[in-house]
Amino acid sequence: MKVIKNYLDKDYFNKLKSVFVEGIDGSKLPFYLQRTVAHKTNEKSLEHFYFTHLFYDHAIMSDFYELVKPIIWDTLKAKALIRAKLNLYPRTDTLLHHYPHTDHEFKHKALVLSLNTCDGGTRVGKKFIPSIENQAFFFDASIPHNSTTCTNQQARININFNYF
Considering the domain 89-152, what is its CATH architecture? Predict the structure, then answer.
């Protein structure tokens, strides 16, 4: 596991933030309801849900892929991309920890890039990594981990990359 603060160049990060955070109101960026977070059938759909925008899932899935492409190939220098998606976890009254899960069963790398600062975060084992704007969190996503909501912003927003 590795955390890097101020991961992206300030101008590039601000461009991402203007589209994916500030630009959400009235944006042409579609978000899709995911009725579960960790693909658990016993999750309470009233609490365990979030919204995503899929940039890439074994193929380009979005016109917005071009905005995140430099992260994948220039910054991460990924050998192969598995998935890239924007996550939006709506605010809840209490911090909700979603169920632990693995992104895939095989060993692979993950980057969670926080687009805003809030009291939510990602837990891997006993370690909790808070969501801090422009912070990158790298880990092996075949290890059980879980996300949270937030209580002090309208939403927790991040980009998740799975790659080799």
Answer: Sandwich (2.60)
